[in-house]
Amino acid sequence: MCGIVGAIADRDVVPVLIEGLKRLEYRGYDSAGIAVIDGRDVRRVRRTGRVAEMEAAAGQEGFNARLGVGHTRWATHGGVTEANAHPHISHGVALVHNGIIENHEEQRERLRQLGYEFESQTDTEVIAHLMHHYLKQGNDLLAALQRTVKELTGAYALAVVSRAEPERMVCARMGCPLLIGLGEGENFVASDVSAIIQATRQVIFLEEGDTAELTRTSVRVFDGDDQLVQREVHLSDVSLASLELGPYRHFMQKEIHEQPRAIADTIEATIDGGFLPTLFGANAEAVLKDVEGVQILACGTSYYAGMTARYWIEAIAGLPCSVEIASEYRYRAAYANPKHLIVTISQSGETLDTMEALKYAKSLGHQHTLSICNVPESAIPRASELVCYTRAGAEIGVASTKAFTTQLAALFQLTVVLGKLHGRISEEEEAGYLEELRFLPGSVQHALNLEPQIALWAERFAPKSDALFLGRGLHYPIALEGALKLKEISYIHAEAYPAGELKHGPLALVDADMPVVVIAPNDKLLEKVKSNMQEVRARGGELFVFTDQDSNFSESEGVHVIRTPRHAGVLSPIIHTIPVQLLAYHTALARGTDVDKPRNLAKSVTVE
Ligand code: AGP
């Protein structure tokens, strides 16, 4: 969703802002803009559409400055227009904003009475006018910001510059991530480390309620009580290579192929030291031993990871486990059992619904919380008692791939740790699970080798308008994930069902035009799945089956089969994710859609 970058330097910051905005494009946006302080003037360029169009406009106007802020906007309040794009300006104060100001209408009314006029429909413009209002009262830029944020209800990350104070930039954070990048004689602000990684790796993550002031050579951070504080400096491990496409056509393709490495990194500590509670934090052992059940909360693909984990946790750890879509949980009168561990799953760590569900769970009395997340220092892990960071590396494609399989790897480790602590797993079983994990990256690599065969299938999916995905047990969530991937990037309508449910309704959809993808590994449900497949064939439906090397399956008319490597036992859902990802990717490719930035979607969903 929206992205922020700002820079103060002894060189032209315009290329820094543009490059930063390009690196934020993956988050999803519909307009972009920059504002720079050029001498004693604020100059601004905004465009709907791509950053490249805004860059061209800035080039034509000859922008060159030592201080400026930039923004990519994903419309919430007000349509996709240039007037609604950021930065917003009030009498020489320019600012960019991520988040939503809930009391903007009330502030708008108040500011109107004070004589301010509004050019946009955004909630953000009230912040610009409030800043000016407090500057007019004699406050300097930092004090004006500190007064302003106290008037705001809602979520914000803000970066502000003013023509009256060309030697500094100020910023603030509440509910939306914001970090400061420390350079040599130059400093930066960004909502996401990828926006400034070309300039510096040293970062300070602002805490909730913080404000900060940056000059070229200094950074001062203040807490919510406006007291000067020291915040830790981190060395970011995001690499430039992870943000570049390399030899791949799309980030999604690159990220699908990075999965053996991403999974190997995520399970590294367990492979080296066994299933240890410390993977989830220093005091994890006491917490995990004490819990009597698990409640998982997540959205989208992360929710499907949670659904898979439910099968594992109940079967292996012997604990009751519920999984719920975060946006549903947060608004219902849920029954809370404080002895149940709340597990949130979020690749971005920023998803508003998941964050709010976590807060709601705490308000209901849940004391123990654990977050599985791919982005260090993001909001959800920061609000959780225990954390396990997946080590997928930056995921740029909007459609989640390596983040999903690494979430599964993390959840499997959690399952075994819970099982051990609750005395449900023998040493022999534990050794077996470790062995299966050891094989996992190699088996994922084998599944990736199926790409040419799957690309041929994709040609047949490309002209279709609907598809059905079936799976049973542990593989039902993978069918859901396959259908979601296909929908997201190829825009083909796809549904997933537990195969046993077919005859209770969806069978009516099946005809010769409806491709039916079946995830049918060689497990104890295979014979049941085969019967369900017969139901499809008898109605003329065409079957595309993903099974294992060692399952007894043969191709026949209307039944196409691709075999993944040997059956991967309990980790089979991870292996069977790869073919459905590749099928979606190649179908989208054949349809010519924007694979990495599908229409209407954003990478981090920070709105309701
Ligand atoms: C996945 O392909 C989607 N883009 C989407 O469903 C995503 O998983 C969901 O929005 C949750 O995001 P999170 O993992 O960052 O919380």
Structure description:
The strands form four sheets. Strands 3-2-4-1-10-9-11-15 form an eight-stranded antiparallel beta sheet, covered by helices on one side. Strands 5-6-7-8-12-13-14 form a seven-stranded antiparallel beta sheet. The protein is of the alpha/beta class. The chain is globular and about 80 Å long. The protein is 36% helix and 22% strand. The site of 2-deoxy-2-amino glucitol-6-phosphate has 15 residues, from helix 9. One of its GO terms (biological process) is protein N-linked glycosylation.
Mean residue pLDDT: 94
Query: Which superfamily, in CATH terms, is the homologous superfamily of the largest domain?
Result: Aminohydrolase, N-terminal nucleophile (Ntn) domain
Fraction of residues in β-strands: 15-25%
The total strand number stands at: 25
Based on CA inertia axes, which overall geometry fits? globular
Task: Name the structural class.
Answer: alpha/beta
The strand line-up of the biggest sheet is 3-2-4-1-10-9-11-15
Bound molecules: 2-deoxy-2-amino glucitol-6-phosphate
Helix content: 25-40%
Q: What is the CATH top level name of the largest domain?
A: Alpha Beta
Distance between the termini: 12 Å
Radius of gyration: 25 Å
State the low-pLDDT regions, or none: none
Total domains: 3
Largest sheet: 8 strands, antiparallel
Which CATH architecture of the largest domain?
4-Layer Sandwich
> Any idea of the CATH topology of the largest domain?
Glutamine Phosphoribosylpyrophosphate, subunit 1, domain 1
Number of helices: 18
Keywords: Aminotransferase, Cytoplasm, Glutamine amidotransferase, Repeat, Transferase
Main location: cytoplasm
Active site: 2 (nucleophile), 603 (for fru-6p isomerization activity)
Subcellular location: Cytoplasm
